[in-house]
Amino acid sequence: MTGGNTLPDNLDPGDAQNRTIADDDAGFVTRCRRGETEAFSVLVRRHQKKMLNIAYRMIGDYDESCDVVQEAFLSAYRAIGKFRGDARFSTWLIGIVLNHSRSHMAKKVARSRHEAGSLDDHVKPETGSSLNEPRSQAGSILEQIERRELEAKVQECIGLLDGEARDVLVLRDIQGFSYEEIGVMLKLPEGTVKSRLFRARNALKDSLSRVLGDLI
Prior knowledge:
The chain is an all-alpha fold. Helix content is 69%, strand content 0%. The protein folds into two domains: 14-112, Rna Polymerase Sigma Factor, Chain: A (Orthogonal Bundle), CATH 1.10.1740; 138-216, Winged helix-like DNA-binding domain superfamily/Winged helix DNA-binding domain (Arc Repressor Mutant, subunit A), CATH 1.10.10.
C-alpha cells in the first residue's frame, strides 16, 4: 500500500528529512529578514545543540563553548541579510561558529603563554554522585573514570592540532559531514579537504601515542 508520504526506493529517509529541515530553515530566514525576531529564535533552538557540539570539540571547554556559540548566533543574526541561500543555513551557520571558535582559541593560546597551568585545568569537571555508589558498582565506576580520562586526553590532543587540521577533523570524523559539505563550509576544494584530513589524522595519531602513555 502506498501513500502520499511514501519515499522513492532510492531516497534515504535521512536525506529527505534534512531537505525538509533545510527548506523550513529557508522560510524562517526569510521571516528573519522581515524583522521577525521570533523566527530567528526558532533557528537557534533548532541548531544550537549541534553548534555547541562543534564548538566544544574545537575549544574543549563547555562554558567557553556556550559563550562562543552565543556570539556566533548573534553574528549570524546581524549578518542574516548577507545569507544568499547558495548553501543550507546550517552550513552557513557552522562556518560562523568555526570562525568564532578559531578566534577564541587564538586568544586562548595567546593568554596561555603568559599564564602558568596545565592542560588539565581546561577539562570540565564531571559532577554526580559516583563516589556514593555501592561497592558492588566499583568496577563500573572505575570503567567510567577511565573512559572519561581517555575522552579528556583525546579532546586535549584535538585541541593541540592547528586550526586547519582541527576544523576538518571535527567536521569529518566527529560530526560526520561529507567532503563536499566540508568544502562548502570552509570554502575549500574537496581535494584540499582530504589532504588536510589525512595530515590531521596523522598528527592526532602521533599526539595520542605520546599522551596515552600516561594511561597505559
